[in-house]
Structures are given as C-alpha cells and as structure tokens.
Amino acid sequence: MADHTVKAFDEDITRLRGLIAEMGGLAQLAISDAMQALISGDEKLAGEVVERDRKLDQLESEVDALAIRTIALRAPMADDLREIIAALKIGGVLERIGDYAKNIAKRVGDIESRAKFEPLTLLPAMADIAAAMVHDVLTAFAARDPVLAREVIERDDKVDAFYDSIFRNLVSYMVENPATISTAAQLLFVARNIERIGDHATNVAEMVHFAALGTYPVDR
C-alpha cells in the first residue's frame, strides 16, 4: 500500500489493525481455554473465559468508534475505505466468536460422568479446525491475502461435516443410554457453538477477500 500523505491517517489504520489483532488473540484464547475447561472439567478456567469476554466487548466498541471516526474525518477511498469497513465488520464477528466460546465455557459444570462419556472425545478435533480457521483468517486480514481467505472458506465444509457426525453420534448415544440425555444435550449445544465459530470465520474470510480485491468470492 502506498504511503499516506496524512500521518494521522496512517496512525488510525495502524491502530485499527492492532485492535483487530488484539481481539483475534483474545477470541482464539477463549476458544482454546473453553475447550480445555470442557474436557478437564475446570470450572475455574471456564469462569475466566466468561470474565474475559468483557474485554472483547470493550475492544469491539473501540473498533466501532475508531472506524467511524476515521471515515468521518479522513474520507478514505478505494482500498483504504474497504479495509476500514472490513475491520468494522470483523470486530463485530470476533465479538460473536468470543460469545460462542463463552457459551461453551458456561456448560462446563453441566457435564456429568466426564471420564466415561465417549462422545466428549469427538469435540476437540472439531474445535481445533474452527480455531485454526480463526487464526488463519486473521493472518489473511493482516496480510490482505485473498488466497488464504479462500482456503479458510473451503475448510468450513470440514467443520460442518464434523457437526453432522457428532450430532448423529450424540443422538444415537441418547437413544441407547437415556440416562445421558442431559449431558448429551449440553454437548450438542457445544458442537453447535463450534460450528457457528467456523461460520463466523468464513464470514471474516469473505470480508478479507472483499477488502483485498473489492469483490466477494464467487461461491459465497
């Protein structure tokens, strides 16, 4: 990108990118800690995930304010305008990803017979794919890399396939073991939240593609 003639504008863009990077780091940590807490039954760690979500909310507000101020004061055009609009939308999506991680953390205390509940072992692999999507799409945003953004979009099919498999597995488990219905229902909720994280990473990837090229992927 060509150097801007207005130093303040450069500073605004740099600050906006920094806020998105900070939000992305917190969202990734929330996913990782929520899943660790779920698998281990660590309610203290789960509580920390819930508490840290406030920081994501605060950062989203900062992104909104900075993006709107920059558009109003600097009147950006073309590539710069697309990047600012993308950052504005991405901030909201990252806040939602944090909410999904928080929702998972809130279920930690509701899982019974954790050591003997076999379907619980299926969720970490699904969460790993979704978390990697979030990581890579933020890398794509920082580099304005539409190719990596499209790779992230393509990976969402794997998350969806995992969700379908886990859904069938848990339903079968509930039918065969009625006493596990409560715990299985909680894990269905967790799987749905992981699936939504993948969807939101896909949404960010579409925005990155738009910011870089001015077009959305043709198969969006």
Strand content: under 5%
CATH hierarchy class name: Mainly Alpha
Q: For this structure, what is the CATH homologous superfamily?
A: Phosphate transport system protein phou homolog 2, domain 2
What ranges have pLDDT less than 50 throughout 5 or more consecutive residues? none
Helix content: over 70%
Task: Describe the overall structure.
This protein has a single domain, classed as Phosphate transport system protein phou homolog 2, domain 2 (Methane Monooxygenase Hydroxylase, Chain G, domain 1, Up-down Bundle), CATH 1.20.58.220. The protein is built from six helices and no strands. Helix 1 runs parallel beside helix 3 and helix 5 packs antiparallel against helix 6. Helix content is 82%, strand content 0%. It is mainly α and 220 residues long. The chain is elongated, with a radius of gyration of 19 Å. The two termini are 26 Å apart. The model has no long low-confidence stretch (mean pLDDT 90).
Give me the secondary-structure topology:
Layout lengths: L6 H34 L2 H32 L3 H29 L16 H21 L2 H31 L4 H33 L7
